[in-house]
Every structure is written in structure tokens, then in C-alpha cells.
Amino acid sequence: MGAGLVEAVFMVAVGAAAGNVSEKMQNFDTQSMCMKKSLLAIVVAAVFLGSCQPKPNTGDLLKNMVVVTDYDNTVDFTQYSSYYLPLDTLSYFNSSDTNPADTLAVDQSGTGYVGNITTRVNNNMLAAGYTKVGKKASPDLKVYVFIVENYNVYQTYNYYPYGYGYGYGFGYGYGYGGYGYGYSSYSVSDQANLYIEIFDLKNKVNGKPKLIWYSNISDLVSSPDQTATTIVLKSIDQAFKQSSYLKK
Amino acid sequence: MKKFFFLFAFLMAAVAVQAQYYYDRSKNPDRNVKKTDNLTGRDFDQYFFLSWNYSQSLSNPNYINTPSPLGLKLGFRKRLNDVDRLWAGADLSYNVYRQYYPYQTYTSGTQSTSTDLYNYTYSYSVTANIDYFFLPQDKMVVPYASVGLGVAVNKFAQYYNIYGGASNAWGVQIRPEAGLLVGFAKNAAWRMKAGVYYGYASSKSTTYGFNSFLNMGFQVGVVKMAW
Hints:
The structure holds two protein chains of two kinds. Chain A is an alpha/beta fold. Chain A has two domains: 3-50, no CATH class; 61-241, Double Stranded RNA Binding Domain, CATH 3.30.160.670. Chain A has helices at residues 3-13, 28-50, 58-61, 113-127, 231-241; strands at 66-71, 82-84, 89-94, 104-106, 131-132, 141-149, 192-205, 208-218. In chain B, 10% of the residues lie in helices and 59% in strands. Chain B is mainly beta. Chain B has a single domain (2-226), classed as Porin (Beta Barrel). In chain B, a hairpin with a 2-residue loop joins strand 5 (141-160) and strand 6 (163-183). In chain B, 46% of the residues are buried. Chain B has one helix spanning 2-23; strands spanning 46-57, 70-79, 86-108, 111-133, 141-160, 163-183, 190-201, 213-226. At the A-B interface, helix 1, helix 2 and strand 1 of A face helix 1, strand 1, strand 2, strand 3 and strand 4 of B.
């Protein structure tokens, strides 16, 4: 690299301050002007560098989903034997849906997006030692799968399929973060979460089923797995894997 | 806080400039300017530099413990007096530290969370500096020791999936440094700068539980001498 090019690069880097340092500077006034330009160059560079904050590659960030699980630690999961889980439907709630009553996503084939999810949940329940039965066969557990889309993460979405609305029994899930380094906050305007919940039908509280386990998997909207064949299924497996207590 | 940061940076630099006015040898009737005509005819009394920083975060190793090649420093110096040893000026320093934590499960109470994490620290500082050169500047190799005092701002950030959190922490920056200016001829106008430094910033983040930010590193850069 020639000296001229080196000098040119340097001039740009320091905001041309050094460019004025030449034989022309024969008196202090000129030097003072140069110094002011130097300071200005540093301030300009500070503003430039302050706005330069590299972040992780988006593709890398979306390789895995965030999987959160929680459970009622007063419950002995070995006491249950059977569960009920519909394989052809799941509930779907979207804040921008023009028809609030339309909360079902149906997959008659069982091999589409819905079917892939419910089948994988079912496989994990079977692997945990529970037996799938029909709704009228008095199951011990109900497995409830639903997707919530396009709600701000600061809005908790409390939905209880059995009709009373005190929310979730043990600290439902938004606001996680930090992971051992304190708690950070975030704001996301459009995302979708897959929830898997297990209700106790065997030991009802005041005649109502009790939520004893849930999983929150996100984000579905930005995930490259839009057919629920890879990352989503792996995340469902992870939810059960990190819940080793969930077994017959 | 950003306005305060820049105002403080500007104030520190202005103080250095004012000091230079009173100490500038051209204003001193008793000046005894060293003769360098036999070399290049130039009596350098200021320089500018841009350097690349390679540094290691020393604090909070559970957050980031890998070295970072992503760093820059921009600065200028001006000779303070007749003695060709004491120079003053300002530095602007920029470093980004990052570390990837593979997918794993974190458990707290009954709740478990699995994700991979990208931890970042963005470190900025503006310091007023005093340099002492152990040899005259007309030498080819001039060792120096320096100390900088100023303001630091550190942004600690975590990214995971589409989520992220960050905490900004401000503090006092102290940075001692030692190194060399190396010219390829006597009294050269362009020189190389190499040095090692240790940085302490009192930046405290209650969000992440950090009490300070420490780093150590070396720098290599290019220097343009001027007068």
C-alpha cells in the first residue's frame, strides 16, 4: 500500500483532522483550528461508533426455539395412567383474527402443521408411559395444545378451557430472560407461541380440572420451520426431555 | 445520558486543549526549541493515531470470557512543554465482546428454560490522557507510558431467538498503558504504535449483577506526526 493511500485512509479515519497538519501551520491560531477539528472528528467518530453495535446473525438466532416448562411440584405424576388428546385439532388464538369465535385449527389428514404437532405431543406422552384414551373413557389427564399469535409479550394470555378465569396456577410464563444473570426485558410485537398444557382430571379442585404442567415454545412466526417438521418437533421433544418428572 | 456522555467528553478534551495553549512552546518567550533541521526540518509537537485493539474481558467471566478482536481506538496528543517527554490528549475507544453459549437448559425452581444464548458487551470510553515518552521523538523507537481518565459506557446485551435484553451502565474509566512508537526513519512523520493496556470501568449493572468492567489488551496502530 502506497504512502499516499495510507495517508488518505488515515485522513478519512480522523475526519481529515490530520490532513490540515502541514507546513501551512506556522502559527498557533492555525494549530488551534486544527485542534478544534480534531476534537470534532473524535466527537463524530464517537457518534459513529456508538451506533455501530453488531448483533448475532438472524439465521443463527432462529436455529433453535426457546422452550419453557413449569409444573406443580406438589403433584406426583406417577399416579396418572391415561390421557385424552385430540390429534386433528388444536386451538389457535390470533389477536388480529376478525372472528374471535374462530379458535380452532383443524387438520383432517393428520399430516399437516396441526397433525405434526399433536402427533409429536402424543408420541412423547406415550413414551412417558401414559395411555391415550377417548374423551368418554374417563381419562386421568387432558393434554391441551394451542397456539397464541400476535399478542404483545407483555400481555399475558390467560385462557382456561374449563371456564373459570383465575389464570394459571403457578406463575405463567412471560418475562423470562437473563438466565442466571438477572432479568432482562424485551419487547416483541408479533410472535407466536405453542403451548402444551396438562390438566389433572382425576383430582379436581372445587370440581374443576387443575393445571399441573405446561410448556411454552416460541417463536413460531419467525421460525424457518413453517411446516412443523423439524425445529418445532425438536422443541416439543425438548419440552418433555427437560420435564423428566413427567412419567408414569 | 448520551448527551451527558458527549458533553463530558467534550469538556475533557477542551481542558486538554486549554492546557496546551498555556504550555505551547511557541508562546513561550524563553523557549529553547530543539534543533531537528539536520534530520527532517520538522519539530513534531502533536500526533494522531488510529489503532486496532485486541482485548480480553477480565470481569464477569461467566458472562463473556473469550477475547475480542473487534476494537478500535482513535486519539490525538499534543506536546505540553519544552521537554519533549510529556504529551496530553484524548482517546476514543470502542470494543465489542461476544460469546455464544450453545443450547442448554437453565432451571430455576420448578421452571426450566432451554435456549442458546448470545452474550454481548459493547464498550465505549472517552478519556483524557497524559503520555510520558522515555526518549525524544526524533528517535526511531520511542517507548512511552500513559494513563487515561474519563467516562465509560458499557452495554450488556443478551440475544436469544427473537428476544433480547440489554442494560446500559455508565462509569469512570481508568486506563494505564505502555508501549512504543516506531518510525521507519529518524523523526518520521508516519509511525507505528504498539502498546498494552489495562482498563477499569466502574460501570455497574444491577440487571446483570455486574459491579464493574475490566479488560486487558494490546493495540497496534498507525500514527501521523504533525506540527
